[in-house]
Design a protein that fits this description.
The chain is mostly beta strands. The chain is built from one helix and 23 strands. The chain has a single domain, classed as Hexapeptide repeat proteins (UDP N-Acetylglucosamine Acyltransferase, domain 1). A ten-stranded mixed beta sheet has the order 1-4-7-10-13-16-19-21-22-23, with no helix packed on it. A hairpin with a 5-residue loop joins strand 22 and strand 23. The radius of gyration is 18 Å and the shape is flat. The relative contact order is 0.09.
Length: 200
């Protein structure tokens, strides 16, 4: 029975957690979500239904992940990141959240506290966006709905909805449809997608 069929008939679909995964108290996992080997998820955090969290991925406390999100292997999701529904995060993506990182406390001396402070910035990845393998996402950014970030990109500025960005630093190089196919104009343009026929 498919996941959609199970939802339709009201069959309980508990999350699946690999025996080697560490899911701390305070982590909420939605129905049908799979957490694979050697994942570490810190609480409190919220992950929606029908998600995949790939092997050796780290999800920090204070993270919110929506429904039907795919996170591949070895992804680092730090505190302050919000990921909306239907987002794809490919292998090796790294999120960052600190504007002025130092290992030491420049005021009081000694090792700096690792908790959030006034320089910890939040990042939001909006619905349907894709972040390619090995991309690095700077702190305090907005990744627009259905945007696509190319593999290996270093993202240092907000990404508009439907934008195709890549490079170091990542820049807008084109536009993509909801289906992911390149298109000639922004989402609100008149061009029809050659792949799926959408005009928006």
């Amino acid at each position: 029975m498919s996941s959609a069929t199970q939802r339709d008939v009201g069959v309980a679909r508990p999350p699946r957690i690999h025996a080697t995964a560490l899911v701390e108290p305070g982590v909420e996992l939605g129905e049908g979500t799979s957490v694979w080997d050697n994942v570490h998820m810190r609480g409190p955090a919220t992950i929606g239904r029908d998600c995949i969290v790939g092997e050796k991925t780290y999800v920090a406390y204070g993270v919110t992940i929506g429904n039907e999100v795919k996170i591949n292997a070895q992804v680092y999701v730090c505190t302050g990141v919000t990921i909306a529904d239907r987002v794809m995060i490919a292998a090796g993506v790294i999120f960052t959240n600190d504007r002025y990182p130092r290992a030491f406390d420049p005021i009081g001396g000694g090792l700096a506290d690792s908790g959030p402070n006034e320089d910890t910035l939040s990042t939001t990845v909006h619905e349907g966006a894709t972040i390619g393998a090995g991309a690095i996402i700077g702190p305090g950014l907005e990744i627009g709905a259905y945007a696509m970030i190319g593999m290996g990109s270093v993202v240092t500025a907000d990404v508009p909805p439907h934008a195709l960005v890549f490079g170091n630093p990542a820049r807008v190089r084109g536009w993509v449809c909801v289906c992911g196919h390149p298109r000639d104009t922004e989402a609100n343009g008149a061009a029809r997608c050659e792949r799926c026929g959408r005009e928006a």
